[in-house]
Amino acid sequence: MAASVEVIVVGGGPAGLSAALNLARARRRVLVVDGNRPRHAATLQAHGFLSRDGVAPAELRRLGREEVSGYDEADVVFAQVSEVAVDADGFRVRATGVRGGADVDAVAETVVIATGVTETMPALPSLRAFYGTQLHSCLECDGFEKAGEPLALIGETADMAERALLLTQWTDDLIVFTNGVAPIGDDEERALARLGVRVERRPIEDVVGEKGVMTGVRLADGTVIPRAGGFVRPVWTPALSFADGLDLDRDSDGYLVTDAHGRTSLPGVYAAGETTAPGPQQLIVAAGSGAVVAAAVNRDLIGIAADEGAVL
C-alpha cells in the first residue's frame, strides 16, 4: 500500500528544500524525494547566497536536509523518481532508492517539481577536469573571483555575445571561443570589439593545463591561446522525463510553464527553481522560488482563491 502525505516534493536542491521547509512550518505532511545527482556537484563554492557566501553547494544541501528533517511533519529520502502519475487520491510517486535509501511508493494531494536541469557541455575531452575550479557556468556566481584575469568564454549557443558583454564587468581580457558553431553576428562582434573582446571562431581541440590548473585553450590547428580560466556555456535540459505522463504545458525550450506562484497547467502540480523558465539561476533565487511555491500550495490546500483571496 502506498504511503500517504499531503505534499511530495520531487528534488532536494535549494528550491525543493525551501518549499519543503516552509510547508513543514505550515504543519503540512511533506516528503522530499531526491535523486542525489545535483548539477552543482563539481562546484566547490557557491556565491551570492546571503549569510552563506562561499559555501559548498553540497554543504548547503546537507544543511537544508537537516533543517527540513528536523520537523516531525517532514522527511527527506534519497531515491530516483521514475514516475509521477495521476491517482484516485491525487498523485502517485514511485522512485528507486539510491545511496542505501528505500524505494518510494507514495501518494499526495499535491506535487512540487524541483528537479532542475541536466547540462551538456561542449565536447572537449579535458573540460570536466577544470569545471568547478578554473571553469564555471554561472557568471553572476563566479565572475567576481575571476576579476582581472585573462578569461575564455566557451560555448556553441546563440547567446554568447550577451554573456560576453556581461563578463566585461569583471575582466578586460576576454576571448569568446565559438568552436566554429556559435552564431555571433557582425554587429555583435563590433560591439564586443569596442570593449576589447575578441571572437575566436576556429574549432577547439581541448582545454589544456598543468597539474590541474588551466593554462589555455588549444585549437584544432594546434594553436594554444593562453587563458587562466573562464566560463563555459552548457546546453541545459529540464530534468522532467518522470513527468511525461502528466502532459504539463512547457515552453519552446522544454521548461514548465507556470503562473507567478508556481502553479502548472495541471491543478495540484507546482514547479519551483530551474525546471521553470528561464532555467538555471543562482541558488538564492531558486530557494526564493521554493518559498513562493510553498505559500501558494498552502493557500490552495486551505481553499483560498488565488485571484481575490476568497474562500472557495
Automatic annotation (TrEMBL):
Pfam families: Pyr_redox_2
One MF annotation (Gene Ontology) recorded for this entry: thioredoxin-disulfide reductase (NADPH) activity
UniProt cross-references to InterPro entries, sorted A to Z: FAD/NAD-bd_sf (IPR036188), FAD/NAD-binding_dom (IPR023753), Ferredoxin-NADP_redctase_2 (IPR050097)
Keywords, alphabetical: Flavoprotein, Oxidoreductase
Domain FAD/NAD(P)-binding: 6-290
Record's catalysed reaction(s): [thioredoxin]-dithiol + NADP(+) = [thioredoxin]-disulfide + NADPH + H(+)
Protein name, UniProt field: Thioredoxin reductase
Originating organism: Leifsonia shinshuensis
